[in-house]
Design goal:
The complex is a heterodimer. Chain A contains ten helices and no strands. Chain A is mainly alpha-helical. In chain B, the strands form two sheets. Chain B has a six-stranded mixed β-sheet with strand order 6-7-8-3-9-10, sandwiched between helices. Classes of the chains: A mainly alpha, B alpha/beta. The interface between A and B is medium-sized, with 28 and 41 residues. The structure holds adenosine-5'-triphosphate (ATP) and magnesium ion. Magnesium ion (MG) binds next to α1 of chain B.
Chain lengths: 246, 266
């Protein structure tokens, strides 16, 4: 087969199906990202606590960081379901499988990000009489999230790609719909190229989104849109200042 | 503060209300004893200046006063409430929590420690909201008033990264003052500043002193110490070597204090 034997127009014809696969992958990975962020943050805090507690977190992190997504999802979909007698949908199984793994990665990302916040800020909060929880959520966490964002971004790209292994349980993500299209059109090269392009493009967009979020977290905010937000905020404060007579 | 004449112990025998009473205060890090039994009385409205060589325990003493360092032994009483382990033969009637203590003791750090993700106003308002339970609007007004008192109302909307070191330190002072503390602690507040920015911070601190605020200041700024210090404390190796009233720095008695003051003046 020469290159012109490939029917590239098929990609356009089946764009809806392909993008549908991406949409499923995005849904599974975003839900898993949110869950992983919560569990990961909790694990990071546990890991930074005193020994008996920190060991639990360390054990979890070291186990689940090493499990491949494919194994995880098979284990959840077939093993855990059998063990607990619950029938997870493929979507649920995918979310759980990803959350188990990526909460371990996020725990590590959060741990180093929390460690990057200067200890003086915690002390300043303590000296002001703020409670520990308030210091954590209002002083430490906002700064740690800013530090963690670039790492979360690249981790999320990996997460999205890992959904491709869920083709094994029949989740209709990018690879699964590609396989389905190949089996009816007999154009594997065309559709796998399309699949690759979709992942590359998705990674590019994800990177842009995370860059934007990161710049939103920068103080003072960067970028035109954020500068506008900033101006509003400043106006509110200057109104207050004027009210008080300069 | 006539009681603490040159060379006497730092225990007040005046009628003035003792705000902070420190007795036999000890602090160890592991096996190293950093404070070896500190006795010090600080009266309401008094301005205490602590000097001493590096590593003598000045910061540790200051940080013990708001329990950022937990004393190993001894008594720390603020307004009659015990916050330390206490003295053997002296069971306290009232014992306070670190949180309660810190809400009456303001602290200013060498490194400013402003929260970089909040504006100057936000930095001041945060603790007003969560410590004083003020409404957002109420906290903003009070925070703005506090910023005005350090001459930075016009910088209210700026983030720490947009302020000079001197301005940041003044915001830090405003942040602590906003909570109406009964005493302010300053740990080398000008040491991290470029020389040309030291003046504005010292001016602000002089204003705070003139307002009648009780202050405990660790500093190497001899001019400030001489003008503001009612009670001057020279520390070395975790102990108070010598204390003196105003004029102490021109006329210390102990050889070590003489030597030290000659050295920092140069
Ligand atoms: N968290 C800590 N752990 C162990 N040792 C400490 C700790 N903090 C202080 N030290 C030690 O205690 C001693 C006194 O330190 P401190 O910071 O109180 O001195 P200082 O008089 O403030 O000195 P400087 O003028 O350099 O600030 C030093 O020997 C220091 O190494
Ligand atoms: Mg010090």
């Amino acid at each position: 087969m020469k290159i012109f034997d490939y029917d590239w127009s098929l990609i356009w014809d089946y764009r809806g199906v392909l993008l549908g696969g991406l949409w499923v992958a995005v849904q599974v990975s975003v839900v898993a990202l949110v869950i992983s962020a919560v569990i990961g943050l909790l694990l990071a805090v546990l890991r930074l606590s005193r020994p008996p507690i920190s060991w639990i977190a360390t054990a979890y992190i070291n186990v689940f960081r090493g499990v491949p997504a494919l194994v995880s999802v098979v284990w959840v979909y077939f093993g855990l379901a059998f063990l607990l007698g619950i029938n997870f949908s493929v979507f649920q199984a995918g979310v759980i499988a990803l959350s188990l793994l990526y909460s371990a990665f996020l725990a590590e990302i959060f741990r180093s990000a929390l460690g990057a916040v200067p200890p003086g800020h915690r002390e300043a909060g303590q000296a002001l009489g703020l409670r520990g929880s308030r210091i954590f959520f209002s002083v430490i966490l906002p700064q740690a999230v800013k530090v963690a964002l670039p790492n979360i971004g690249s981790m999320y790209i990996g997460m999205l790609k890992d959904t491709s292994t869920f083709t094994i349980i029949g989740l209709l993500e990018v690879v699964r719909v590609t396989q389905n299209l190949v089996s009816t059109t007999f154009q594997p090269f065309v559709f796998y190229t399309a699949a690759a392009l979709i992942y590359v493009l998705a990674a590019f967009v994800i990177d842009m989104i995370f860059r934007f979020i990161e710049s939103a977290y920068t103080r003072p905010p960067h970028g035109r849109l954020l500068a506008a937000v900033r101006r509003r905020q400043r106006r509110k404060i200057s109104e207050l200042v004027e009210e008080m007579g300069g | 503060m006539s009681a603490a004449a040159v060379g006497t112990h730092a225990v007040a025998d005046t009628d003035r209300a003792v705000l902070i009473r420190i007795r036999g205060l000890r602090k160890s890090f592991g096996t190293q004893e950093v404070l070896c039994g500190i006795d010090l009385d600080i009266c309401a409205g008094e301005h205490v200046v602590i000097v001493g060589p590096s590593g003598s325990g000045k910061s540790t003493l200051l940080r013990s006063i708001n329990l950022l360092e937990k004393p190993t032994a001894g008594s720390l009483r603020v307004n009659g409430v015990e916050y330390g382990p206490g003295l053997p033969g002296e069971p306290p009637q009232r014992r306070g929590s670190p949180l309660a203590l810190r809400r009456t003791v303001g602290m200013v750090f060498q490194q400013f420690n402003l929260f970089p993700h909040l504006t100057a106003l936000g930095n001041v308002a945060l603790s007003l909201r969560s410590v004083r339970n003020m409404k957002a609007s109420e906290a903003r007004v009070k925070a703005a008033e506090s910023l005005r008192s350090v001459g930075l109302l016009q910088r209210a909307a700026y983030y720490p990264a947009e302020l000079s070191g001197g301005q940041q330190q003044r915001v830090a002072i405003a942040r602590a003052l906003a909570l109406d503390p009964s005493v302010m602690l300053f740990d080398e507040p000008t040491s991290a500043l470029d020389p040309e920015l030291v003046g504005e911070v010292l001016r602000t601190m002089r204003q705070v002193a003139e307002s009648g605020m009780t202050m405990v200041v660790v500093t190497h700024e001899m001019g400030f110490a001489r003008d503001v210090g009612d009670l001057n404390v020279f520390m070395e190796d975790g102990a108070i070597v010598e204390t003196g009233a105003r004029g102490f720095f021109d006329n210390p008695t102990s050889a070590r204090a003489k030597e030290f003051i000659r050295a920092v003046r140069r």
